[in-house]
């Protein structure tokens, strides 16, 4: 609590979150000599160190790492950095930047005053600011469904955010729930370690790693896909609900084909729905999930083919993909007692948690409303969210452009305030 001897500190800008997005905004604010302070609940780049498994790699090539003033500085631009290399790359960025940050400080509540300024209540005291950037990301609260409560208390359960390696899991088969990027890659990690894996699939799409002589990311970059804005996308803001394609950068990069895993002994099921006290229950949609993933895979390849033809590019021809496995039947039940499952690993993502943000800028799904990170509430901004502006917004490739844009908005607001002009 503040007392007369501890006056409320007033700052032009406060940034909430010390990941690459928050630090990128700090870079551009420093360029313009705009005073600001970053609050980070843990330590800088904490999630990269604590919420990634041991074999984690980037799924985009290293050359796409382009933080402001800090492009990829290694020897393998076409490779895929491992977790420890990513952490080291980000530490070098922070060391260059020397950001004004308070680590270990939690923002408990943030509200707006009648005059448009902001009250920021933290674990380290009370602050006030003119503008605030929310850089805490959209992956804050791990999702574990309520049906998990029905499973036996003796069954070990874990979210992907806690997973490090197969050795930390108890003996027995591992039920991996979810086949998005994390689920597919963790299922592969366990499979390569010789663990029995039962995978409850979802509707996540997949993408090739290499196609017609190049990494698919390189083709898509040439085609301008990473620069298409939300406003230009056919789905408009609906694209933010899309699931990321599964692929991996492991061992130099390769595609992930769940059908091939099935030929090697991984058990595949449709989407898990419930537990009836004896059986795990699944939708009969395994074939549909696999077909959907393959359809997206082929569609992306087809678009690359069109681009190659239109640009008269000399590229090697590709072999047609032939599914190596088809489910013979749709299994809707798995008796838990007979499956020898020692662990359930939930890989169904995260949900945003902005309960501490007391401003009316959220839609019915609890997601912040914004246009390129600029919210309807003057002086309140978001960065680091998937598809904030483009496909690259949630990646190392696009966050710098988003941060530079927001810094320009912040500067314009501060200038307008000094001149007594109200910006709309």
Automatic annotation (TrEMBL):
<protein>
    <submittedName>
        <fullName>MSMEG_0569 family flavin-dependent oxidoreductase</fullName>
    </submittedName>
</protein>
<dbReference type="InterPro" id="IPR050982">
    <property type="entry name" value="Auxin_biosynth/cation_transpt"/>
</dbReference>
<keyword id="KW-0560">Oxidoreductase</keyword>
<dbReference type="Pfam" id="PF13738">
    <property type="entry name" value="Pyr_redox_3"/>
</dbReference>
<dbReference type="InterPro" id="IPR024000">
    <property type="entry name" value="CHP04046_FMN-dependent"/>
</dbReference>
<dbReference type="InterPro" id="IPR036188">
    <property type="entry name" value="FAD/NAD-bd_sf"/>
</dbReference>
């Amino acid at each position: 609590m503040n007392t007369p001897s501890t006056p409320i500190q007033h700052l032009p800008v406060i940034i909430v979150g010390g990941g690459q997005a928050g630090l990128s905004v700090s870079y551009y604010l420093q360029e313009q000599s705009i005073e600001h302070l970053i609050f980070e609940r843990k330590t800088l780049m904490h999630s990269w160190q604590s919420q990634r498994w041991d074999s984690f790699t980037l799924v985009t090539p290293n050359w796409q790492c382009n933080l402001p003033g800090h492009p990829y500085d290694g020897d393998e631009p076409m490779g895929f950095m491992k977790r420890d290399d990513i952490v080291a790359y980000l530490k070098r960025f922070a060391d260059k930047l020397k950001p004004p940050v308070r680590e270990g400080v939690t923002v408990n509540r943030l509200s707006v005053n009648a005059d448009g300024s902001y009250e920021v209540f933290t674990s380290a005291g009370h602050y006030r600011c003119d503008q605030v950037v929310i850089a805490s990301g959209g992956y804050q609260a791990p999702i574990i469904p309520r049906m998990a409560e029905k499973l036996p208390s003796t069954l070990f359960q874990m979210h992907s955010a806690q997973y490090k390696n197969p050795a930390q899991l108890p003996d027995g088969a591992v039920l991996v729930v979810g086949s998005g990027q994390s689920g597919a890659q963790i299922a592969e990690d366990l499979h390569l370690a010789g663990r029995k894996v039962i995978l409850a699939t979802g509707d996540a799409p997949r993408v090739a790693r290499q196609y017609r002589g190049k990494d698919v990311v390189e083709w898509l970059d040439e085609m301008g896909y990473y620069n298409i804005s939300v406003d230009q996308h056919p789905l408009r803001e609906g694209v933010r609900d899309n699931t990321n394609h599964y692929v991996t950068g492991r061992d130099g990069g390769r595609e992930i084909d769940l059908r091939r895993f099935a030929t090697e002994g991984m058990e595949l099921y449709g989407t898990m729905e419930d537990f009836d006290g004896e059986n795990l229950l699944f939708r009969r949609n395994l074939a549909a999930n696999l077909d959907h993933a393959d359809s997206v895979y082929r569609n992306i390849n087809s678009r690359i083919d069109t681009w190659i033809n239109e640009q008269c590019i000399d590229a090697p021809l590709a072999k047609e993909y032939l599914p190596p496995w088809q489910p013979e039947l749709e299994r809707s039940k798995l008796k838990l007692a007979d499956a020898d499952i020692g662990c359930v690993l939930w890989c169904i993502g995260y949900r945003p948690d902005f309960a501490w943000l007391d401003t009316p800028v959220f839609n019915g799904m609890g997601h912040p409303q914004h246009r390129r990170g600029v919210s309807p509430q003057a002086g309140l901004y978001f960065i680091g969210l998937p598809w904030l502006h483009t496909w690259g917004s949630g990646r190392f490739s696009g966050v710098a452009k988003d941060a530079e844009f927001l810094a320009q908005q912040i500067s314009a607001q501060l200038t307008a305030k000094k001149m007594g002009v109200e910006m709309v």
